[in-house]
Amino acid sequence: MAQSDWNIFGAGTWTIVTTPVVSGSYAILLDSLASGNSIVLLYNGDTNIGNTEIKAWFQAQSAAPGRPALFWRQQSLSDVDNGYAMQVVTDHVYVYRVVTGTWTLLATASVPNIAGSYQQYRVRMKGYDIEVCRWNGSDWDLLLVCPDPAEAFASGAAGFGNWYQGRSYFDDVCIGEETP
User: Fold this and answer.
1) Where does the pLDDT of residue 64 fall: very low under 50, low under 70, confident under 90, or very high at 90 and above?
2) 8 Å CB contact between 66 and 38
3) Which of 53, 109, 114, 143 lies at 20 to 30 Å from 84 by C-alpha?
4) 163, 131, 180: which is closest to 58 by C-alpha?
5) For residue range 17-40, what is the model confidence (pLDDT) as tens digits?
6) Dihedral of alpha carbons 172, 179, 74, 60, sign
7) Of 88, 143, 140, nearest to 114 (Cα)?
């Protein structure tokens, strides 16, 4: 994908790096070091994804841990104020519904600390049921399943980012329709 395939916004920077990487030669470093700053990339190739699947390898930098996040069913390509988000903060994963900028926690689960080592996560949303898994090296471990009782958003754009503050690396981000 080219840079033109992404809407990039927020008060942060992005850089293509050669280390650390999971596969291939490059990863992306998202840097938003000032308190409250975030940087987000939303894929503009398909802005009407319904049954969503997002997979990504990411890690928080050890020296300035970021809060890597995945976003889906976003209603705008210029903000993440209406849609869903999954964020990993240190050793917990959080799933949110976001309506007019207000983040409502739907579920949480414990995970290994992401500072300094890549981990792969997968989010699937079919209808209004959200499933979050973590790759254990040979299979997907189910971390949580939760419904959105408000049934707020049926489709939208998807992407990833570093939410709030710090540095995060992303590699092999895959966005598309949920598969069996």
Assistant:
1) confident
2) no
3) 114
4) 163
5) 998 899 888 999 999 888 888 999
6) negative
7) 88
Tokens 């996040």 -> residue:
69
CB 47 within 8 A of CB 175: no
User: Pick from 70, 107, 67: which is nearest to 91 by CA?
Assistant: 67
Other C-beta atoms closer than 10 Å to the C-beta of 50 total: 14
Whole-angstrom Cα distance, residue 158 to residue 172?
15
What is d(CA 18, CA 24) in angstroms, rounded to the nearest whole number? 9
Can you tell me the mean pLDDT for 126-131?
96
Whole-angstrom distance, CA of residue 42 vs CA of residue 159: 4
Residues constituting the chain: 180
- Name 149's Cβ contacts closer than 8 Å, sequence gap at least 6: 128
The tokens 């992005």 sit on which residue? 14
Pairing outcome for strands 157-162 and 39-43:
antiparallel
Asked whether 32 and 166 are in contact (CB, 8 A), the reply is yes
